[in-house]
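thread: overnight batch results

M.L. [08:02]
morning all. the overnight job finished for the chain we discussed friday. pasting input first so we're all looking at the same thing
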Amino acid sequence: MNQPTPAIVAQNAVRRLPRVALLLLCAAYLLPGLLGRGPWKSADITAFGYMAELARSTEGLARWFDPLLLGMRPETPALIPYWIGAWAIQLAPSWVNPDLAVRFVFALMLWGTFTATWYAVYYLARTPRAQPVAFAFGGEARPTDYARAIADGGLLALIASLGLAQLGHETTPALAQLYFASHLFYGVAALPYRRVGPVIALVVGTLGMTLSGGPTVGLALAIGSAVYMAYERHQRAIRAAEGFSDGESPGFSFGALLTMVGITVLAAALVLGLGLAQWKITLGNSLLSDVRSQAKLLLWFTWPVWPLALWTLWRWRRQWLERHVALPLWFALVPLAATWTTDFSDRSLLLALPAFATLAAFALPTFRRSAAALIDWFNVLFFSGLAVLGWMYWIAMLTGAPRKAAASVARLVPGFVAEFSPVAFVLALAATLAWCWLVRWRTGRHRAALWKTLVLPAGGTALCWMLLMTLWLPPIDYARSYIPQVRAVTERIGHPRCVAELALSRPHIAALRHHGNLNLQPMLLGNNCPWLLVSPDTIERLHTIIPMDQWRFSGTLRRPSSPADDLLLYEKIVR
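M.L. [08:03]
and the structure it wrote out:
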């Protein structure tokens, strides 16, 4: 007898993951890194720079549709992410640091991504063709319980994805795009079951992607979703005409299809009306010349979900055109195509993580016990080893022993002086003890649960992020922040009425304005500033740009951890 699906799941395997535990895990992943740091290089501080400029802009509504940072438009031509950050700065109390207010709002967007992904997986798992095989004498998993267990696994898979760790905690348009893409994914998945919520999610997701720097990806996802909805309606009509009625779940109604088409047309009109068509994806040389680096990015960025996603595609190979496989596959393929055809590879690939996590979740009901045990022991050894190394090198950074470990840290962050933080130590210790308890629980003898295979990857990823954002936050912030360099600038020049700049990068401009509160003015526009900051990239043609007899070289100001970010300082000669 042919099995309708490869999933064989009993009711006792879909017991509920405690909501308190799931919420604590999400909080342990979201909250670390909110406090105790500033914006990091280089996309993080650049995006914040545009938000801060909008927040203090007095040029009216037109400036909000054309964000500028010292006359330069953003490399990611988005609108909504900068609006959200600017509103957060304006609405935050005066005692809240502006970059903290922005990070808090973007952390809520990551939480929204988690929520949308969970519900998307839940509704996809509710479809009859995604359900497990019915047993001859009963006892198979009930549809709702099975869908909830698969959704828990999908959320755990998303948290476990390595690529989400850094980009998911930055305040960039990439995180906003992830938020909107996940809502578009949820809207399509839930539309057969609900109306108001999914339609709102479709509008927010499609239009949000359009105005967040991803109009091409957003339109491709929406068009593909509409095409699939039409295809599924056609297939259901064929089965109905042939007299088959197998108790299918609600499908996409004609009204739902019409709504999807209308939203897509509205997004396309917005692209044309606001002149966003120039933001389209263009093919570059990387498709052929950089295959190896792109493959490496794909392997580590989507680890550990990509092996599970491939396993799903193999085990569910007879259901590729079913809703629970076809939709996440499309939402993974479109960002993959963008990854290979744009210069923003990792940020484009970020949009595929909810879909990869969904595919990974559908691998869970097809695993044998031996495969699940192998995954568990690998994760125990891998994350426990990382935690031991993190503690060992942290102790070496504070005490100087072992010497080789201490020398390695000093080489990575030259000039950094480590200090013991009791709060960070307690939080890191609590996270480590929680990991030990989780390992003991997972390796103990208790009833099986469908989502258990992904508990250790998600918990291990949250542990490593917690250790990085507690024990290692000061050296990481020192290495990735522009504060040391800006402090060196202000110590040398004080706070003059203005500082001329020539060919500085967007991150440097944003950092100097935020951390140093300096009034930068472009040198080429003419000014009478007593100091000049120059990018070393212009040193060979500097004498052809400005009269060098009016300026005296005052020194090179470096970021301690990155000589490539040098700034050249010149003082105006007073005659």
